[in-house]
Amino acid sequence: MLTGRVPAAVGEVALGASTAAQLGVRPGATLVGNAENEEAPQVPMRVVGTAVLPPGDVSAHLGDGVIVTGPAVVRLAGGRARSPYVIAVTFRSGVDTAQGVARLDQRLSAVDKNFLTQPPTTPTDLVNFGRIQNLPLILASALAALALITVAHLLATSIRRRRRDLAILKTLGFTHGNVGRAVAWQATTLAVVTLAVGVPLGVAAGRTAWRVFAGHLGVVPDVTAVLREE
């Protein structure tokens, strides 16, 4: 659940984030509609939350769809709801998945040969994200290289503009080592100030961009930092 709670009564519904955005509703709003039976009378349903939805036959997007209770489906269909035709199964911890699927296939085929088992499909949103997951790293590397070039150019330009000041300092007794240390201090100060300003702004911008992107996908917009030891 992203917001609110799971529907518990026949008059309650939870929406995918994208569906809620398309309808322009929030938890607490009331919708009117039916399901599975176009001739069924429309009934009011109160929105109690928004949720991340698994991909199904109708949509492969995590933010599309609704969640209701079983009795609510019957009510929305005017008493003419279909029997469930897709059942989600999870195995206990420690069970070999291949053996579990084989045993499940055997038991289901004994009941009806039309039954079949298949692994969960990967949501389209995650497939698309996997194709571009290296793009942020490439973009960050390009921006970092551009930032280094910009700082180097700024430093070189600053030194060139102050050639007269450096000449005066040499006249007063500055050696090449003194001039080098002065330039080094200037470069260090410039780099420290740049990092002190750029890193927090970059982190804030990255978190904001991810929250907007996650909200568009209809998934949990939490940000987690992972540190790995090699």
Summary, kept brief:
The protein is of the alpha+beta class and about 230 residues long.
Describe what this molecule looks like in 3D.
The structure is a single chain. The protein is α+β, with helices and mostly antiparallel strands and 230 residues long. Among the domains are: 3-76, Barwin-like endoglucanases; 134-217, no CATH class. Helix content is 50%, strand content 10%. It is built from 7 helices and 5 strands; from the N terminus they run E-E-H-E-E-E-H-H-H-H-H-H. The protein has helices at residues 17-23, 70-76, 97-111, 124-132, 135-161, 163-171, 176-217; strands at residues 3-4, 12-16, 30-33, 43-51, 66-67. Strands 1, 2, 3, 4 and 5 form a 5-stranded mixed β-sheet that branches. The longest helix has 42 residues, at 176-217. The protein is elongated.
Give the helix/strand class: alpha+beta
Strand content: 5-15%
Radius of gyration, taken over Cα atoms and rounded to an integer in Å: 30 Å
Secondary-structure element order, N to C: EEHEEEHHHHHH
Percent helix range? 40-55%
Helical element count? 7
Q: Give the number of DSSP strands.
A: 5
What is the end-to-end distance?
Answer: 35 Å
The 3D shape can be described as elongated
Low-confidence stretches: none
Largest sheet: 5 strands, mixed
Mean pLDDT reading? 81
